[in-house]
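Possible regression after last week's pipeline update?

I re-ran a chain I had predicted before the update to compare outputs. Posting the input and the new output here so someone can diff against the archived version. Not blocking, just want to make sure nothing changed silently.
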Amino acid sequence: MRVLLVEDDPDFIALTEKILTLRGHTVTTCETGTKGLVQAIGEEFDLMILDLRLPELDGWEVARQVRQVKPDIPIIACSANLMQAERERSRALGFNAFLGKPYTISDLLSTIEDYENGSHA
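New output (post-update):
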């Protein structure tokens, strides 16, 4: 899979990129919402992991704009705010899944598993 990771925390970037690369995926990373939006619209990806709190443009706005151009790309929301309202808002705005921070390797793998198998449709 080609994965776009839009995340500003270097630790989460390193962890996620390493895990996904070891599983054979190609990972492109962006550290701001603006760069993530440009990448998401300008290139083809099979999956997007999107932090909700980003510099320049937050993840909510990035997802909204990406959905206008590429409505079918699976987008996983990633946030340290684990309140139920945050999860519900992410679902209502078209995110496919929610990954709470800090996440473990097993959290990440179980969240992306359906997308790796192509069974998310």
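Follow-up from reviewer: compared with the archived run. The chain has a mean pLDDT of 90. Marking as no regression found.
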